[in-house]
Amino acid sequence: MSKTMAIVGTDAIAEAMRQIDPEVVAAYPITPQTAIVEKFSEYVADGLVNTQMVKVESEHSAMSACVGAAAAGGRVMTATSSQGLALMWEILYVASGLRLPIVLVNVNRTLSAPINIHCDHSDSMGARDASWIQIYSENAQEAYHNVLQAVRIAEHPEVRLPVMVNLDGFIISHAVDRIDILDDAPVREFIGEYSPAYPLLDVANPVSVGMFDGLYGYFFEAKRAQEASMEKAMYVIQQVGEEFGQRFGRPYGLWEEYGLEDARACVVALNSACGTIRTVIEAMRQEGKKIGLLKLRVFRPWPGQELVRVLQHFPVVAVFDRALAFKGGHGGPLYTEVAASLYEAEKRPLLANYVYGLGGRDLSVSMVRQALEEIWQAAEAGRVASRVNYLGLRE
Amino acid sequence: MKWDIDDVQKWPWHKHPPGLVNPDTGNSVQFNTGSWRSRRPALDLDKCSQCLVCYIYCPETSIQVQDRKVTGIDYDHCKGCGICAEECPRQAIALEDEAVQAG
């Protein structure tokens, strides 16, 4: 049913794209994403896929070509990182506004300046309000699975929104890992045929796409409909994750829990840091320090109510952020979202924020240990010593 | 597909097709872009040589032609860009202030 391979993360993504065999891929190279489209263009050249590969002169054009191809009725994918995602900016909103189910793989890399090619989440976090579904992946195996599921989620008739699958640049994209690649046939059966709602190439049923909102003004209504679809996506993501589990033995939900059942403090984090955090929690639990990890998979739609139900039972919740929101010392974007949702909780936990890994600064086991000891002490004392903390910063 | 949009201005948000796709055709004629005009092209048929340059240049197909002859201007859709007046080799089209026309 699958074959085990030792490959880098970008190759795992290219494998997913080969199996999906999208009608159109339009992409522009940028570190650390480049290896994905390089590998995929080999598949195109070797005739392993039927994809029309559009080599464009920028990411702005890449996303524009994706919009055109998706409006035409094609299954469309692209991949980017950092400045590339930033250059796609205005077209990201066109893709979601026109309700085009484009799948984008974003290999997380920070944004300049200072110029830096390494991992943090400031690229995808900056796009958080673009009405794109955002799914995060701890490792290459999850990223591979998430890309396959992203197609189903995006194309679901009640969703019809673009999906961004995120994985950490270099840490995951360029590290060789043990990855189980599923067989082509069951994957293609899972993905299924795409039937677009209003394809431009259906010449028997002509439509107009991307019309001027005019002077009558339906823009507000269109945005409200987008919000409703994002709400629906919460359930569709879980349905698709469940079905994926039934077919391939590994179910996916909105998040993954580790040690939450008896924990007195809970860590919330995204992507590859979760591996390091889990290792430290494992060691501390053996010492009787019961801390748990909630590895968030879905950031958009934001599972606020669902998170509150789980998080409100902990005396302390610590949120790890690999990006800043530059609110002036009020913490990173993930922390802000968690804090906002907990306002509605019956019992509000004490909150702490740990900003780490900006521009690829390494998150070591000892750094996480230091943070988790502080969190444990906060649970014991019933008081958080410092709300916003910077892990691994030279102070 | 034909759809009934008579009361489109009253539609609730969930009634519109996703992404505001318009699944009907040929209805841009219902959009009266002539109301945008601030300057009105006035055609003097006595000066007109029927070269049809204005018809070729008009971006809104608002030069009315019958039997290969210019007969008038479609003021419901002419936006008053003035290209016709600029291109006319006989100066048969003059732009007039819409406010003056309206009195």
What's this, in brief?
By secondary structure, chain A is an alpha/beta fold. Helix content of chain A is 41%, strand content 20%.
Describe this protein's structure:
The complex is a heterodimer of chains A (395) and B (103). In chain A, helix 11 (304-311) crosses helix 12 (333-342). Chain A has a seven-stranded mixed β-sheet with strand order 3-2-4-5-7-6-12, with helices on both faces. A six-stranded mixed β-sheet of chain A has the order 9-11-10-13-14-15, sandwiched between helices. A two-stranded antiparallel ribbon of chain A has the order 1-8. Chain A has helices at 9-20, 34-45, 59-72, 82-87, 89-97, 122-126, 140-155, 184-191, 219-248, 273-286, 304-311, 333-342, 365-381, and strands at 2-8, 24-27, 52-55, 76-80, 103-108, 133-136, 163-168, 176-182, 255-258, 265-269, 291-296, 298-300, 316-321, 350-356, 388-391. Helices cover 41% and strands 20% of the residues of chain A. With 103 residues, chain B is an alpha+beta fold. Chain B has a domain at 34-102: Alpha-Beta Plaits (2-Layer Sandwich), CATH 3.30.70.20. Chain B has a two-stranded antiparallel sheet. A two-stranded antiparallel sheet of chain B has the order 2-3. In chain B, strand 2 and strand 3 (69-73) form a beta hairpin. The longest helix of chain B is centred in the middle third of the chain and has 5 residues, at 53-57. The interface between A and B is medium-sized, with 24 and 17 residues.
